[in-house]
Amino acid sequence: IMSAFGLIQIGLILSSTTIISSLQCSHLPLQQRKVIENSLRLLDKMGKKFPQQCLREKMSFRFPTQVLQPRHKETVGVAIEEIFQHIFYIFSKNLTLAAWDGTALDQFQNGLYLQIEQLEACVIKKHTQHRQSKEVSRLKLKKYFRKID
């Protein structure tokens, strides 16, 4: 079960992804900003009611912020894509205790999927020699999301 604080952290991660503009994928910044705003609105709509046992949980998920401050711009895109994939996985699980609005959840997942697709295309286009730092970022994020799951 994900705590309310965990959901808020995910929302903050989503809102911080305007860093994508540094990837120089010219069509993404404006498009992503709109999708992110909509995603935050949907998260708010979905997350109004949390099960009592979730509210009592005190979980600390310290996000590995260094993955969003890499030496190479291309690594940021890989990190954000990885974050979105894990968030998509979390919200795709059968979370029966969460009393979320099903329509809002579907719309949120669709927006997330769209972001993943766009980022994959951009990251593939920008696929460069920084493979090792990209993999380090992926591994750090996988470790972080394993704690949440």
Automatic annotation (TrEMBL):
State where the protein is found.
Answer: Secreted
Q: Extract the Pfam families matched here.
A: Interferon
Q: Which GO terms describe its cellular component?
A: extracellular space
This protein's UniProt keywords: Antiviral defense, Cytokine, Disulfide bond, Secreted, Signal
* Predominant location: secreted
- Please give the Gene Ontology molecular function terms for this protein: cytokine activity; cytokine receptor binding
Please tell me whether the keyword Phosphoprotein is annotated for this protein.
Answer: no
Q: What does this protein do?
A: Has antiviral activities.
* Name of the protein: IFNW1 protein
The encoding gene is Ifnw1
